[in-house]
Structures are given as C-alpha cells and as structure tokens.
Design brief:
It is a single chain. The protein is of the alpha/beta class. It has 13 helices and 14 strands. It folds into two domains: 141 residues, Aspartate Aminotransferase, domain 1, CATH 3.90.1150.10; 222 residues, Type I PLP-dependent aspartate aminotransferase-like (Major domain) (Aspartate Aminotransferase, domain 2, 3-Layer(aba) Sandwich). Strand 5, helix 8 and strand 6 form a beta-alpha-beta unit. It starts with 5 loop residues before the first helix and ends with a helix. The structure holds pyridoxal-5'-phosphate. Pyridoxal-5'-phosphate (PLP) binds next to helix 5.
Length: 390
C-alpha cells in the first residue's frame, strides 16, 4: 500500500494513553481505581440548559443550522464578551460557533499559520496545543516556564524564544494543568512582546469561571492594541458541565474570522443545531449552577491543598483557577511518568504525569479535583501512605 500521511505519523501519541489504558485494565479486573486523570466536571449539565435543547428538538430544530452559529447564539456571545470580559469590539460576524473548544483552537491555528510558522507554546501547556500546531504545519516552540517560580511568564523569557518565523502565542488562563491565572504583569509582558513582534495571540479562556480565593480573570482581548491580533477561544464544556455537547466558539479580528468561516463551511459545516439553543440558555439564563459548581471545586481544592501540605515530599502551590492541582514530588528523582505509574500500580490512583504537558512539567503530576469529595479523601489517604516510599 502507498504511504499514509507523514504529517499525522509525525505527531506523537499522548504519553498518558498507556497509563490510562492500564487504569482501565485494572478497573476492569475489579480493582478500586480512583480516576483523577480526566478533565471533565463530575456534575450534570444544569436542567434549564437541557430543557432548552429538548424544546428546540421538539420544535423541529433538527435541520442544518447557519454554519457560523444561530443569530441568537452569536448575539448572546457578543453580549457575554461585553458583560463579562470587557471586550467591546466583537460583532456577531466576528464569532464562529464550533463543535467544542478543541475545534476552535484547531481553526485558529489553521487560519493563522503558513507552513513553517512558529508558535510559542507556554509549557506546561495543555496536551493538545503542540500537536495541533504540528497538524497545521506549524512549528511548536516550547517556552519552559519556571516551576521554581510557579510558572510565571516573563517578558525576557518570551523574547528568548522569538524568531523571524514567530507568528502566534498560545495562552491559557486559568491554566490547565498549572491552575495559574494570569497576573497584571504577565498580561503586560504578553501584550508588550506580541505588539513588539507583531504576533497573533490565542487566548483560551475555557476555565474563566472557575476561580478561587478572589482571583480575577482578565481577557487579553480587552487590552489596548490587542483587538487586531487576539483570537479568543471559549466554550461551554467546563463552566456549564457540557463536555459531551461539543459546543464552543472563537472570536477575533474580522480578517481572521472571515477565513475561519470559510474553513468551517468547507470542513465540518457547523455545530449541532439544537445545542445552540442550549448555549443561548447557558449564557443568557441564571448562573447559579455555575457558582454552585465552582463553590464545590473550591471546597475540594481547599481539602486537597490542606491534605497535601501534611505529606512530606509533595509541594503544591495554591492554585488560582481551573480544576486541577499540579503538585511537585520533591523527595524523589523519579520522572513524572514513573511516579504516575507507581501511583496507579501501588495506590490505584490514575493521574496525568507532568511530562505530558512538556518538559517544564517534569517532576509534577496532575490530579483532577472535578471528582467527588469521597474520592479525594481516599486519594489523600493513599498518597500519605505511598509518598514516603517513592
Ligand atoms: C485548556 C483547554 N482548552 C480547551 C479544551 C477543549 O475543550 P472542549 O471539550 O470544549 O473541546 C480543554 C479540555 O480539556 C482544555 O483543558
């Protein structure tokens, strides 16, 4: 047979796959595995959102919707950007509704990159960022943020990784996996460097509502000079517990969005029609459930931070947002993949090794806290027993 796609062959598989597979095998063999490897809320989608989709289906909203999103949803997103993010320059024509945040990121890269363009990926970064750059024929340039300084983004550090081929910076705040939320000075650094080198910025704000201890989310798109270079990626998966609905969006400068619309019409056509009615209900309806879910994550975060503080050899800075903790295992020279394997084999806790998020994540392990408190209590007990043996 003729050779398959070299491009896709060149994209590495996730280093976590093997471990997740092992976790599944152990669970299938009857072992009591606690799964903290995933990245999805353990809550169900709020009732009024489900109801809106039911009603849409019953009313016959089962045909092709407008490719870019229904007018009602585009308007709701524009209003939300003004209301919550202080972003006033986006019109409905500058929004594209997508099936999931992942596709919104993929489209952003597809319409901004030419072959060989470099993309700054701030590590530790979400596992799909670098492979998606590769899939779009770009070159991921990994910027290792310092674990010793709680992964702070600095102007000089960014500059060190800029070249004449630099095209875009991928930013994610609140961050998966570190739980960091951009500070004023980090935002200033990104703005300064991107303006200086005429770069696009993708700001992935999918965890924006999940904030702790008074942390504030500020969108890069609201900064002066950033409107023409910033593409916002956001969606419903995390805040509204809607991972399975596959509903998200991107919004940005008119020329970028013009290409994004062409790309969508010639690829996946649209998100599913009736999910868009659910999206309108989510954005325009009551936000109580969002607050309740975040309050539950806050309680779990507090529990895990307090519990880990008691365990020698594990250091965990207090995360500011998203629903993961990313502790460092300080009393061992073992790599994060080996640590994660031991956690799975000896303590039956399934996690994601820090190396999956780039070299800068080495020594760390990601635990999801979007999990029932009972499981977190059992995790803390098992970790306390295992840590001294690592
Ligand atoms: C940082 C980040 N961006 C985007 C996504 C994609 O979300 P979706 O489920 O909407 O594709 C995720 C999902 O885990 C994520 O962690």
């Amino acid at each position: 047979m003729k050779k398959l796609s070299q491009l896709i062959e060149s994209v590495p598989g996730s280093p976590t796959t093997l471990m997740m597979q092992k976790g599944r095998e152990l669970a299938a063999a009857g072992h009591d595995v606690i799964n903290l490897a995933g990245g999805e809320p353990d809550f169900d989608t709020p009732g009024h959102i489900v109801e809106a989709a039911f009603k849409a289906i019953q009313a016959g909203d089962t045909h092709y919707p407008p490719s870019f999103g229904t007018p009602a949803l585009l308007e709701a997103i524009v209003a939300k950007l003004k209301r919550e993010n202080n972003v006033h320059h986006i019109t409905p024509a500058q929004v594209l509704v997508t099936p999931g945040g992942k596709w919104a990121i993929y489209v952003t890269l597809a319409v901004t990159l030419n072959p060989g363009d470099e993309v700054l990926v701030l590590d530790p970064s979400w596992v799909s960022y670098a492979p998606m750059v590769q899939l779009n024929r770009g070159v991921p340039v990994r910027v290792p943020l310092p674990s010793s300084d709680n992964f702070t983004i600095g102007e000089d550090l960014l500059r060190r990784y800029i070249s004449p081929r630099s095209k875009l910076i991928m930013v994610n705040s609140p961050n998966n996996p570190t739980g960091r939320v951009l500070t004023r000075s980090e935002i200033d650094a990104i703005v300064k460097v991107s303006v200086e080198h005429d770069l696009y910025v993708m700001t992935d704000e999918i965890y924006e509502h999940i904030l702790f201890d008074g942390a504030q989310h500020m969108s890069l798109a609201a900064e002066p000079d950033m409107a023409k270079r910033t593409i916002i990626v956001n969606g419903f998966s995390k805040a509204y517990a809607m991972t399975g609905w596959r509903l998200a969006w991107l919004a940005g400068p008119a020329p970028v969005m013009k290409l994004a619309r062409t790309y969508q019409t010639q690829s996946i056509t649209s998100a599913a029609s009736f999910t868009m009615a659910a999206g309108v209900a989510a954005l325009n309806g009551p936000q109580d459930r969002v607050h309740e879910m975040t309050a539950a994550y806050a309680q779990r975060r507090r529990f895990m931070l307090d519990a880990l503080e008691e365990i020698p050899g594990i250091e965990c800075p207090p995360i500011e947002g998203a629903f993961y903790i990313f502790p460092k295992f300080t009393a061992t020279n073992k790599g994060s993949l080996e640590i994660a394997n031991i956690l799975l084999e000896k303590a039956l806790i399934s996690t994601t090794p820090g190396i999956a998020f780039g070299e800068a994540g080495e020594g760390h392990v990601r635990f999801s806290i979007a999990t029932h408190m009972h499981d977190l209590e059992r995790t803390a007990e098992r970790l306390a027993q295992l840590a001294p043996t690592l």
